[in-house]
User: What shape does this take?
Amino acid sequence: MGRVVLVTGAGRFLGARAAQVLADQHSVDRVVAVDLAASPYPLGRAEFVRADIRSPVISKLLATEAIDTVVHMNVLATPTAVGGRAPQKEINVIGTMQLLGACQRAPGLRSLVVKSSTTVYGASPKDPAMFTEDMAPKSPPRSGYAKDSVEVEGYVRGFARRRPDVSVTTLRLANVIGPNVRTPFTEYFLLPVIPTVLGFDARLQFVHEDDGLEAIRLATLSERPGVYNIAGDGVLALSQAVRRAGGVAAPVPNLAAGPVGGLLRRARLADFSPEQVRFLTFGRVVDTTRARRDLAFAAKYTTAQAFDAFVRARRPDALVTQQMLMGLEQALVSTVTRGRADVAG
Assistant: This one.
């Protein structure tokens, strides 16, 4: 008999796609996709049930549907999607607590997969070149989605101690990007003038939406407990990303970065918390060795390729312009090199 999987957060793109992908697996009999509102995205063979993970109905659903695997995708990165920071925190933290309480009372549960984020590592000038899963943040997140993710992981660890019979897997995804994803970072890179922090050029890491979904699929089917970093190979400097996106960088002093981020948030041009501003100041890179070794996860897209896929879909003229500029730059370098050779000869 195959798996019966519950996927939370099916009202958003990644949750809906995860439900769709898992429903197509031979080892999965049924997928029950839940959210507060009907999903605007196709769910394939998955069955949608309108449910709030903060309510007792989730316990009944686990029992009546004989759920043996839970994939928790309902940790929201954007407060504007639910009406502000207070409801975002309630859904993220209180919702996770209630879901885990229901899971603890479900004797048939055998596997829990939680989508977390590399934001749990924070961002600071003292960070290592690469974070492994066993490293603690040098500057723990103090606000927003990043702080919620830290709290969610704490509750997940507590659940794993109380239910050692359940395989618990936490996936820390880098910033997900691609043709269909809408996040604060994708909207930031679509600004015609992109504010950056003067004197800093953060190292960024992305994971393509398809690779993120593949990591979720592998974690769900393989039952490999533990914490795993998920990201595309390589890094992009912020300055490189701005050029690839076809934007114009507007460096602002460090002290003004926070107010500028707040201005963008209030103007609904991009949704930035102080933690996101810190990320765009200091950057963050993670090591994915454990995911390759234990989950057999290998990203098909590098960080640069994932970013370019997003640009092609949302701003196709930017890559054409970039290629033209690169061609002119190479021609100029070639001309200068030949000139130096002629002078030397």
Summary: DSSP finds twelve helices and 13 strands in the chain. The chain has a mean pLDDT of 90. The first strand starts at residue 3 and ends at 8. The two ends are 78 Å apart (CA to CA).
